[in-house]
Amino acid sequence: MKNSKNTSEIAGQSNPRHVKPHKHDANLQKNSALYFQVGLILCLLVTYTLFEMKFESKNVQLSQVVIDEPFAEVTPELFKMEENKLRRMEPQKPIVLLNQTPIIKPDNFEAPSEVLLTEPEVYHEPINPDHINLVAPPERDEPEIFNILGVEQVPIYPGCEAATTNDERRSCMSDKLSTLIQKGFDTSIASDMGMTGVQKIYVQFKIDEKGNVTEIMSRAPSPKLEEEAKRVLSKVPQLTPGKQRHRPVSVMYTLPIIFDVQ
Question: Interhelix angle for 223-233 vs 166-184, to 10°?
Answer without folding.
Answer: 120
